[in-house]
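Quick check before the chapter quiz. The format below is the same one you will see on the exam, so make sure you can read both the input and the output lines.
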Amino acid sequence: MAPEAAAGGPLALVRTCDFIGLDVEDRRIDIDVSADELARRTPSEPTVDAYANPRRGWERLYVDHVLQADTGADLDFLVGSSGSEVTRESH
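Here is the expected output.
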């Protein structure tokens, strides 16, 4: 969802079977895990090594240009290029 997840952001701490809350109206995505539990978790070294510093290709493009989930996870260089309405069929 966000490039910084692999670089130590909270998304890197999500584990299988964690509950994720989505509040579309308030534009929020929250993990239903206590702060104490999140403090005990660390992202795996291979995750950090492989995704936090990609050298090229799609992974580099993603890290450099994908916006946050609350702003639509769009590519930053496409924002505003297709007007304010994006139809279902355009995806």
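If your answer matched, good. The first strand starts at residue 20 and ends at 23.
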